[in-house]
Design brief:
Keywords: Membrane, Transmembrane, Transmembrane helix. This protein is an alpha+beta fold. Helices cover 32% and strands 21% of the residues. The longest helix is centred in the middle third of the chain and has 32 residues.
Length: 264
């Protein structure tokens, strides 16, 4: 069989020619392998072919890359936190944030501690969950205070007078109290138990004559809390205990810094 590497026409120096050592990519004995290059007798990794780098997830040392940590929990935590923050601002529904807020906070802390992907989601869950919980606590304190004030009863002296016959309408808010409308002529006074927010009285001139009617409410110590006077046909004088609370709030002395800002 003829030599395929012989020059056409012959070559006197043919014995000095040698066959090529191999083509590109061909493995030869003693040749150093590049990383990922397939060599004879080597079992290729799944998903790869000779000369190709290992498929994703497989390494020459037999190890396997761990999949990226899922951030589904952090997304759920963020949704719960935002929901808690939004619901906490709705009156009478904000108490739901008492449950959703802590759940979002715990999941957010776990996400931050475990260094899950989308760390911003975990931070958002922690912030919004904390906000929702704080708002719910403030609402609870406010409602508890209002309920306490609304249920508070004290002894008051209801006083009325008029230049002619007049109509007295008393409201105590207490079961069994002297609520109702009566006709009076001359000074009228009565000690009653009344709710601080709902107690009060109104004095009306029921005629078309020009008459004067008045009302007063004193505390049990005799201190004047509120009074009112009206003159004319069908005029009405009104004394409400709720107005006493408003006046007391207006009389609170604020610090100079707040007062200056309020004046501006």
């Amino acid at each position: 069989m003829s030599d395929p590497y012989t020059r056409p026409g012959g070559d006197p120096n043919q014995q000095s020619w040698s066959a090529p050592s191999g083509y590109q990519g061909q493995y030869t004995a003693g040749q150093q392998q590049y990383p990922g290059q397939y060599s004879p007798g080597q079992q290729p990794y799944p998903g790869s072919y000779p000369g190709q780098y290992p498929a994703y997830g497989y390494y020459p040392n037999g190890g396997q890359q761990s999949p990226p940590r899922s951030h589904g929990m952090t997304i759920f935590a963020m949704i719960v936190g935002i929901t808690a923050a939004a619901i906490s601002l709705v009156p009478f529904l904000g108490f739901v944030a008492y449950v959703l807020g802590p759940v979002a906070m715990v999941l957010g802390i776990i996400g931050i501690a475990q260094r899950y992907r989308r760390r911003g989601y975990s931070i958002t869950a922690l912030v919004t969950g904390t906000f929702g919980l704080l708002v719910s606590v403030l609402y609870t304190i406010l409602f508890s205070t209002l309920i306490s004030v609304a249920q508070n009863t004290q002894t008051y002296e209801f006083t009325a007078d008029g230049t002619a016959e007049y109509k007295v309408n008393m409201r105590t808010g207490v079961d069994g109290g002297p609520d109702g409308i009566t006709m009076q002529n001359g000074p009228f006074s009565q000690m009653v138990e009344a709710l601080t927010l709902f107690g009060g009285m109104s004095i009306t001139n029921p005629t078309g004559e020009i008459e004067t009617v008045s009302c007063r409410i004193n505390d049990s110590a005799g201190n004047l809390l509120i009074q009112d006077t009206a003159t004319g046909p069908y005029q009405m004088a009104t004394c409400e205990l709720s107005d006493v609370l408003v006046h007391q709030m207006e009389d609170i002395d604020f610090p100079e810094e707040l007062s200056a800002g309020k004046t501006d």
